[in-house]
């Protein structure tokens, strides 16, 4: 048998057939179910985009209204989840809390795996997906209150997905413009082909485990700084740089030490990530609002993008989605360690679409390895080992 070719990081290796999203990495194009990301960001809502990802088509008005009503009706989590969260250390990262809380949601649904009948029961799978999408924002916002010793703010069924999240974070009904900016951010982060966390979804889905394990595993993968965790790192980096004047020297030192610039580079995009451009535009939209001109970080970010371009663009390294999202959330007054949980909230729709797609044509993932270890070693009793 011919020896299998090992591709580190599975670069260029297809692992599934998928109709959910598509990237053209050299042209900088992204589509969800055939619709350009720019079009969805301008015209759609997170609720509609989530349903598009899950069902494959833009919904009719009645289907969208019923999905939206389902999301609003299922935002609350069981009291025991709140009790569990009470015992988590408030110093812990919210992604660790989210991983644990989402996995625990599955304990209220006794069976650990999906039966054949359940896998073929589309309304059952739809209901599970909708409940997970509805509850992740509640858990994140509950934690934001609980970690400061406050009672969680109950969800408000009169508000849409993004507006309700902002309401639960602060207790204030958000300005519709801020809610729309977050809504667009959620659309932009909802799906992105087979990135690391979505690959984790495929692998765990293929064992027929329950979707709570699937989504908790994906949250764990997203938390890493090379993936979704980079949005928090970007803001830490910009804060450390501190001024526009320090940008070139900071980058030169970092690159000389062979360190990565957070929020730059991508396995698939060899030009600017289209989401980075839209997020930058949203930041400009936010900065233009009176009373919200705290744009020092944004100025540093733009200087970093310019200087990084001079140093890295020839290697195909450009700003990715994580570069401007953290700056935008920071300027919206959101705590830095909530940036990646907000990414997870949004990406739950894409993850669950891939969960459904995997179940519809399942085969367990079981790749191989190139063994580089030893063979046939003689066991030496402990007393005789030198
Ligand atoms: C939602 C998301 O996940 S978007 C990505 C978020 N992650 C980040 O922003 C972290 C910084 N970026 C990176 O670590 C990488 O670019 C990744 C993880 C996104 C992609 O990784 P890979 O495709 O495996 O690229 P890899 O890490 O092998 O880099 C290839 C070359 O580009 C360089 N490079 C890649 N990204 C960067 C960067 N951000 N800063 C400086 N150099 C970089 C590497 O040093 C390497 O150079 P070399 O060939 O001279 O050794
Ligand atoms: O596609 C990737 O590898 C990472 C990414 O941008 C995302 O998950 O949004």
Q: What do you see in this structure?
A:
It holds the Pfam family Citrate_synt. This is Citrate synthase. GO terms for molecular function: citrate synthase activity. It catalyses: oxaloacetate + acetyl-CoA + H2O = citrate + CoA + H(+). By secondary structure, the chain is mainly alpha-helical. The chain has a single domain, classed as Citrate Synthase, domain 1 (Orthogonal Bundle). It is 55% helix and 3% strand. The chain has helices at 37-43, 46-55, 61-73, 79-86, 94-105, 116-120, 122-146, 161-170, 176-188, 196-205, 211-222, 230-241, 247-256, 274-287, 296-312, 321-331, 339-360; strands at residues 21-24, 29-32, 35-36. It has a 3-stranded antiparallel β-sheet with strand order 1-2-3. Helix 12 (230-241) crosses helix 16. The longest helix is centred in the middle third of the chain and has 25 residues, at 122-146. The structure holds acetyl coenzyme *A and oxaloacetate ion. The site of oxaloacetate ion has 6 residues, from loops.
Order of helices and strands: EEEHHHHHHHHHHHHHHHHH
Structural class: mainly alpha
**In CATH, what is the homologous superfamily?**
Citrate Synthase, domain 1
Radius of gyration: 22 Å
Cα shape? globular
Annotated CATH architecture: Orthogonal Bundle
SSE blueprint:
Elements: E1 21-24, E2 29-32, E3 35-36, H1 37-43, H2 46-55, H3 61-73, H4 79-86, H5 94-105, H6 116-120, H7 122-146, H8 161-170, H9 176-188, H10 196-205, H11 211-222, H12 230-241, H13 247-256, H14 274-287, H15 296-312, H16 321-331, H17 339-360
Antiparallel strand pairs: 1-2, 2-3
Helix pairs in contact: 1-9, 2-17, 3-7, 5-7, 5-11, 7-8, 7-17, 8-9, 9-14, 9-17, 10-11, 10-17, 11-17, 12-15, 12-16, 14-16
């Amino acid at each position: 048998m011919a020896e299998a070719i090992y591709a580190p990081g599975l670069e260029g290796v297809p692992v599934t057939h998928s109709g959910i999203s598509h990237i053209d990495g050299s042209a900088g194009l992204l589509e969800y179910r055939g619709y350009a990301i720019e079009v969805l960001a301008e015209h759609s809502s997170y609720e509609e985009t989530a349903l598009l990802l899950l069902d494959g088509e833009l919904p009719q008005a009645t289907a969208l209204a019923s999905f939206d009503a389902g999301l609003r009706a299922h935002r609350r989590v069981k009291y025991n989840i709140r009790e569990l969260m009470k015992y988590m250390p408030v110093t812990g990262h919210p992604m660790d809390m989210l991983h644990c809380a989402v996995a625990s949601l599955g304990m209220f649904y006794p069976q650990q795996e999906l039966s054949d009948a359940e896998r073929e029961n589309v309304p059952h799978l739809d209901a599970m997906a909708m409940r997970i999408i509805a509850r992740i924002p509640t858990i994140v916002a509950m934690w934001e209150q609980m970690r400061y010793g406050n009672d969680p703010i109950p969800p408000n069924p009169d508000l849409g997905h993004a507006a309700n999240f902002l309401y639960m974070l602060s207790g204030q009904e958000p300005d519709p413009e801020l809610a729309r900016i977050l809504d667009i951010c959620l659309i932009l982060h909802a799906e992105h082909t087979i990135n690391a966390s979505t690959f984790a979804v495929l692998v765990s889905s293929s064992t027929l485990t329950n979707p709570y394990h699937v989504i908790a595993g994906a949250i764990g993968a997203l938390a890493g700084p090379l993936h979704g965790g980079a949005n928090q790192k970007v803001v830490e980096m910009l804060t450390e740089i501190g001024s526009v004047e320090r940008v070139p020297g900071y980058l030169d030192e970092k690159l000389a030490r062979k360190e990565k610039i957070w929020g730059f580079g991508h396995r698939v995009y060899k030009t600017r990530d289209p989401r980075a451009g839209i997020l930058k535009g949203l930041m400009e939209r936010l900065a233009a609002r009176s009373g919200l001109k705290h744009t020092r970080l944004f100025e540093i970010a733009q200087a970093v993008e310019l200087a990084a371009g001079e140093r890295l663009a020839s290697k195909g390294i450009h700003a990715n989605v994580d570069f401007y999202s953290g700056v935008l959330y920071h300027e919206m007054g959101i705590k830095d360690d909530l940036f990646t949980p907000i990414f997870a909230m949004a990406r739950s729709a894409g993850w669950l679409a891939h969960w459904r797609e995997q179940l519809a044509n399942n085969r367990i993932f079981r790749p191989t390895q190139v063994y580089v270890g030893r063979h046939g070693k003689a066991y030496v009793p402990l007393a005789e080992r030198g």
